[in-house]
Write a structure and sequence with these properties.
The protein is α/β, with parallel strands linked by helices. The protein has 2 domains: about 1-125 and about 270-330, Quinone Oxidoreductase, Chain A, domain 1; about 130-265, NAD(P)-binding Rossmann-like Domain (Rossmann fold, 3-Layer(aba) Sandwich), CATH 3.40.50. Helices cover about 30% and strands about 25% of the residues. The protein has helices at about 40-45, 125-140, 155-165, 180-185, 200-205, 225-230, 255-260, 275-285, 290, 310-320; strands at about 1-5, 15-20, 30-40, 65-70, 90, 100-105, 110, 145-150, 170-175, 190-195, 215-220, 230-240, 260-265, 300-305, 325-330. Strands 3, 4, 5, 6, 7, 14 and 15 form a 7-stranded mixed sheet that branches. It has a 6-stranded parallel sheet with strand order 10-9-8-11-12-13, with helices on both faces. Strand 12 (about 230-240), helix 7 (about 255-260) and strand 13 form a beta-alpha-beta unit. Helix 2 packs across helix 3 (about 155-165) and helix 2 crosses helix 8 (about 275-285). The longest helix has 14 residues, at about 125-140. It is globular and about 55 Å long.
């Protein structure tokens, strides 16, 4: 098969479309013929040499895909209610999506939601599982509470806005342009903050009569740590899922104690297979009906052929996109 290979850590020009060995479905896995995959920040970090795949994972980039089941591994027998050869699915991956085929544990598969084209379904698994596991399963966002999403126009941001609004929460977002903020508003965000021109702590306090955010979903990390704590409501939960703004920062524990707040940091990729299966099952139960009904939609900025993975990475790193960038296969 052909896959995107990182010739050496570095820029997008180091992504090569090459012939590699076919994967094999191991026990409890299925083999998927990939129709599309999606570009995520984790792929960029891995390309640069900063985010190696976990032991035993595929060496290739790609944390989600959609496609058709080609083969079943031992223990996946296609009984009633289970997956079968020929089924169209999308999947949460530990790696390997930038390829013509990928093996994945059966518990990380999801059916293609009604009304979503096979290719576009590749935009769903990673962002939906990330948002649902962090905002709802971990942080426990409730109706009437306020969620602050940093990077509201990203793939994760556009999904977080929609899901939070579906449960009756109020959504605040940060983004860097008026056009991005307008797209966030169209998706349901009610508090729009231009982080280039406005201080998000002040804007959030003003919009919430001083209360702050009950949950903050943060992909920045160190750069925003202190101000995120300031922006939390009493009993608030800060969930850190990215390090775009650095790894190390000073934390005012007194401020945290004063608000009886929590700082939580999570990673989806490195979780055990059983934990991922639990998250995927929850997503299928709670989110897939919303997508099938058209209440929640994948937001897709661009679709490029797999061979143009380098250009897709350049687009992601430019931060000019809104939503997901897909890589498609013939």
């Amino acid at each position: 098969m052909r896959a995107i290979v990182v010739s050496e850590p570095g820029g997008p020009e180091n992504l090569r479309h090459e012939e590699v060995a076919d994967p094999v479905a191991g026990p409890g896995e299925v083999l998927i013929e990939v129709a599309a995959t999606a570009v995520n920040r984790a792929d960029v970090m891995q390309r640069m040499g900063h985010y190696p795949p976990p032991p035993g994972a595929s060496p290739y980039l790609g944390l989600e895909c959609s496609g058709t089941v080609l083969a079943l591994g031992e223990g996946v027998d296609g009984q009633a209610g289970a997956v079968a050869v020929g089924d169209q699915v999308c999947a949460l991956l530990t790696g390997g999506g930038y390829a013509e085929r990928v093996a994945v544990p059966v518990g990380q598969l999801l059916p293609i939601p009604d009304g979503v084209p096979l290719t576009d379904a590749a935009a769903l698994p990673e962002v939906v599982c990330t948002v649902w596991s962090n905002v709802f399963m971990l942080a426990g966002l409730q109706p009437g509470q306020t969620l602050l999403v940093h990077g509201g126009s990203s793939g994760i941001g556009t999904m977080a806005i929609q899901l939070a609004r579906q449960v009756g929460a109020r959504v605040a977002v940060t983004a860097g342009t008026a056009a991005k903020l307008e797209r966030c508003r169209e998706l349901g965000a009610q508090i729009l903050i231009d982080y280039r021109e406005q201080d998000f702590v002040e804007q959030l306090r003003e919009a919430t009569d001083g209360a702050g955010a009950d949950v903050i979903l943060d992909n920045i990390g160190a750069k925003y740590l202190g101000r995120n704590v300031q922006a939390l409501a009493v009993g608030g939960r800060l969930v850190i899922i990215g390090l775009q703004g650095g790894r190390k920062a000073e934390l005012d524990i007194g401020a945290l104690l004063g608000k009886r707040a929590a700082v939580l940091a999570t990673s989806l990729r490195s979780r055990p297979v059983a934990e991922k299966a639990t998250i995927v099952a929850a997503v299928r139960e709670h989110v897939w009906p919303l997508i099938a009904a058209g209440s929640v939609v994948p937001v897709i900025h661009a679709r490029l052929p797999l061979a143009q993975a380098g250009e897709a990475h350049r687009l992601l790193e430019s931060s000019e996109h809104v939503g997901k960038i897909l890589l498609t296969l013939p």
